Amino acid sequence: MIRIENLEKVYKTEEVETTALNGINLHVKEGEFVSIMGPSGCGKSTLLNVMGLLDKPESGSYKFIDTELLTLNDRERSNFRKRNMGFVFQNFNLIDELTVFENIELPLIYNKIPTAERKKLVNEIIERMNIVNRSGHFPQQLSGGQQQRVAVARALVTKPKLVLADEPTGNLDSSHGNEVMELLCELNETGTTIVMVTHSSHDASFSNRIINLKDGHVISEKINKSRNEELI
Amino acid sequence: MRNLWKNKGFSLINIGGLAIGLASCMILLLYVVYEFGYDKQYKNYKSTYIAYTNMKANGKTFSWAWTPGLLSQELKENVTGVSNSARSSYPISLLIGNGENKLKNKGMFVDPAYLKIFDFDFIDGTSDNILQNINTVILTKSLAKKLFGNHSSINKIVKLDNLEPLKVEAVIDDIPQNSSLTFDYLMPWKLYEKRETWTKKQGWGSNFCLTVVQLQNSNTLAQVNTSIKDLFHRMDKDQENELFLHPLSKWHLYGDFENGKSVGGKISQLKIFLLLAICILLIACVNFMNLSTSRSEKRAKEVGVRKAIGSSRKSLISQFILESTLLSFIGTVVAFILLEISLPYFNNLLNINLIIQYNDWRYWLTLICLILFTGLIAGSYPAFYLSSFEPVKVLKGFSIKAGSAFSVRKVLVVFQFVFASCLIVCTSVIYQQLNYIKNKPLGYNSNGLVQLSAEGNLKNLQKINLLRERLVKAGAVTNVSTLSMSLSNGGNNTSGISWPGKNPNTSVLFNNRAIGYDFVETIGAKMVEGRSISKQFEKDSNSVIFNEAGIKAMGMKNPIGKKIKWDTGENVIVGVMKDFVIDNPFQKVEPMILYSAFKDNVSVILLKLNPSANVTASLSKIDEIVKEINPDYPIDREFVNQSFEQKFENEKLLGTLSNWFGGFAIFISCLGLLGLALFMAEQRKKEISIRKVLGASTGNILTLLNKDFIKLVAIANVIAFPLAYVIINQWLSAFEYRVAISFLPFSLAIVISVLIAILTVSIQSIKVAKANPIDALKYE
Ligand SMILES: Nc1ncnc2c1ncn2[C@@H]1O[C@H](COP(=O)(O)OP(=O)(O)OP(=O)(O)O)[C@@H](O)[C@H]1O
Ligand SMILES: [Mg+2]
Hints:
Structural class of chain A: alpha/beta
CATH architecture of chain A: 3-Layer(aba) Sandwich
Domain ABC transporter (chain A): 2-232
Helix content of chain A: 25-40%
Pfam families (chain A): ABC_tran
Bound molecules: adenosine-5'-triphosphate, magnesium ion
Number of domains of chain B: 3
Oligomer: heterodimer
GO cellular component, one term (chain A): membrane protein complex
Largest sheet of chain A: 6 strands, mixed
Organism (chain A): Pedobacter frigidisoli
Protein name (chain A): ABC transporter ATP-binding protein
């Protein structure tokens, strides 16, 4: 589904130029669960942001199914993103002023889904995420794990083809972390493609394939056999 | 210091707003001080009074500063408490010349005592034994210079009206501009009596001069006023008019009377300006506070760290106060530059001469108070607010969502916009009213109507006829007529008209004017019935015309051919004219009687320009012919519509000033809004980024950010409307003819204020809305 070729991204600041991505090639099949690992500063988040159309690379090509995404203009990128992609961040990035329900509803509003259907979709996902009794709470009133579940719910509510997760468990303890990982696995099983950045090999073990980055290069790829067998 | 420089944009907005506010405030204050200084240049101004006559007629009381010529002497000799009194004429424009150097300038005829009451600044000569001789004159410095150049003028002879030789007895300094009495030269009252012989014979019922009175003690005013109230009646049983003294110091600002009592006047306009000045200053301060606070909030972390490492609260406060004082000082300096730059323009606009009194200590005192006030108000809030942060809270993750600071700031913005929207409403109603009055039909056609002042030969009816023939023949004009008073001035009136069926106990006041042939045709007025006075009817000497208001006041049916009595003579009504406006366009048309001009009761000649001829050509033709017929006088002509335009000066001034300063106030408010938007956008950066990641477009984000501000502006409008309504209704109530207050000004205020808010907020937040969301989300 995703074909990334020769992706290059350079950050220029006043003092230094950092090559964050240095000729990345990456293919992701539909329904795949891919983990990206690597040392800090190797370009994982950058790669994810580029894949999420949140950042523009200097050169390379990024095909999603058959569409070349890098030539889109801002508005098209934004439209493509909100229809096809969901995001989960390490620091949850919920809006503090909005309730759980409203937070989850937000992407639907931007996708111009009618109110009644919105209600239905949000309630469905809230039930699935097991946070029904929290729907009127504000993010600050939830535990980290609960917040991340809300964030996942928000990423999923639009039924995106691709979910991008940047260290979704980074701020959570292991039991909460596991909850979130299980959620992602369930999601993957229903056919959603997931690309996840993680530092934890435990988390990575939930995925089909692990990609190792270093200094903006893909240095190795590992198929996770156990998971794949499960899948098949 | 480094901080100021680091936030250049911020500092610029901050200083700019403050400077504009201060400069506007100072200009307005200068103007207010100027107006308050009216007539206060004289040493004895506190004990000097103007005699006013109250006259009941047409069901109301008219109050005016016209008195009988006999009054002054009576007051001086027989009223206790009065120490001095003098008569004067109103300023009259007359020709005064040194040989062939002739100028038309304003002169006044005064009793010698006049120069004791007002301590004019004598450059040459003294106030003793002056104007005793009938052929004498006192010149002001600038007139003396115009007539005699740099030569001394003392004891030289000037000629009045090409007729009267007058010896220059003294030269006085020019009369300050903010003086109600403006003249270029003073002549003895005796000369007036000689020129206008009728004045000598007038009794207690004839009001033709101004009487200035000096009291021994200003505390006795009430007593004196009680004792002189019925003075006219005591002197002459037939007189019902009442007399009172009005302080000189209130003459200019409290010139309106109702039922014989002072009810203010220009002072209300001045109060509006004073309010405007204070409000602009407040707005500027609010702005300063707003901007400083939001800017410093960005530095909250710094404050937290500083406090954590042991910086005391006191040193923090002084650091912030120092910073804001520095800013306000720079603001003041810039304000001065702005002031100096704009004063000439402002003076030109108001046709006055305001200057900054650099060598007056009161000026500096006011200025220092202003700066201290501004500095304190503007600087203290952010300083105390910020320094009171708990370091732990700040460092832990600083968030001021619905925090107190933010709501205070919201209140401030609401305050600013209440003011802005009030101003928009008021300004547009003032504008509507001005237009309404201007476009109110005059009852005649002032286009192409020229008034020529009748002097010298042109006072002679034969010569006027000659002028008419020649001008018409030359094709410059289509009609010529005369009037005993300029169309744009007030003039004589009489209550001595009686008609069959008149109630002897009521008094009806008629304006009376002498008109020449074809008057109605010349000014393009309409007859309701009957005929105008024309050459065809040689024996028109006792024919009169009334205006509709006059007929209505008499309650007369079928007036044509009816006889009326005027003083001793009997007149026949030959026509009724449609009402037309003379003198005061703001008031209802008063009853008027028009009669045929005889002998010398011509003061202006009315010329209707030929509409099919070129105006410039016609005018030069007129000038040429007039000069031929009346060679001794400079040509003095004006377009009637132009001189009418001057009637609106006060209202225009109010309109212009509220436009300008309202504009400034709105501009400063915008700066404040900008600051708040800046802060808000900064504050919500993360939220905005999240929303963008979730698919919000730039439009979505702008709507989001604007929504809050529009809410504030809406609240401001809701508060402003009743306020504006009360203010403007108050202002309008002074007009007899006034526009109905419509929705238009209010909708205008909404549209403008919302538009301004959206623009300001969007300009600022578009940057944030367009920014790459990931930058804000990356690092916490
Ligand atoms: N906005 C930016 N400006 C300049 N340099 C940047 C910017 N964002 C990232 N970089 C640099 O790009 C490189 C890759 O950053 P990236 O955030 O992708 O690393 P990462 O692999 O996600 O690290 P971590 O595991 O710590 O999250 C780093 O060297 C970083 O310093
Ligand atoms: Mg990262």
